[in-house]
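Lecture 7 notes: from sequence to structure.
We start with the chain below.
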Amino acid sequence: MRQDASIQEWGRLYEAATKLKEKKPWEKFWDMDLIGIQEGDKEDTIFISILGRGGSCYGIAAYEGYEGFNDYLLLATANTFNLSPEYAMFSQNNLTCYWGNREELTTKQREIIKELGYKYRGKNQWLYFTSYAAGYFPCNLDKEEVLRLTEYYTRLLEALEWYEEKEMEVDFQNANMFLYRLDQKTGQWEGVKEPLPFTSYQYKKLAISNEDLKEELENVSESQAVLEVNMDYLGAAVTDKEYDRPGNPWICLVGDADSGLILNMEMTGPGEDGGMKLAQMVASFILTNGAPKEIRISNVLVGTVLEEICQLCGTQLVLQDSLKSIDDFMAARFGAF
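Predicted structure tokens for the same chain:
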């Protein structure tokens, strides 16, 4: 159950972030110069990206654990997968603060600032916090997130001071990071240079465990159909009592490339996986109509969802820049693309 932070807890977070701003870390670090904070296992390292060296948007993003770091890599390399910036951003799981403009803040965020007594003036001066979670629309932090981010920022301030005092030099361009870690033997924190745990996005391929379904797909008849298949976020907040936070559902689409008609469209519910939904839709089509000659996709991540299905039924999976039936439908229905 979502619980709001107290004004005292918000106050400690605002104080920690304000101290970080005074250090102006964006004058030393680019957004891909990662700072790690490790208190326990390596897999639980917090990865910090400093935003703003280009001068357009100041902020600090915290990615929790190796899964969070994988999200960061997706965002950093989105163009190589033919993903829109919105798709990559909505796939993130992170906690971020921004120094932006007043109109960027929600009413709740402005109320917190007013109650804390902070007064901001000018462009890129208003401090606010955003929680990103895949499948949900970005929203204000809850109590647990406020507490965690306060701890991360406290350690980050220590890390920046260590970095300056030791005059450290890290070869960030060759897949290294600055790691501020707790030495389990001495109980003391220290800063070291450390290679990144991995350097390319780790795909999450869909594996079919149902042996009966595998056999059905292997023995299905052939058809001359050519499908266009995609999934994307709605890109709008959906409020529902089943959600602890505003939802941002997946829209899963199967279209006919020849006629341009949409054959099936489904939207995910709270907690549903878009990839699983899309795979079920494609498998259902195949079992009813036969294996398509081709399935066309426009991003690599959809391919990882459909790869095994296509291998089992002998369908060619084709990656191309755009999908006319789906792009036209989305433009007409949602004003996208």
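Points to note: The first strand starts at residue 35 and ends at 38. The first helix runs from residue 7 to 23.
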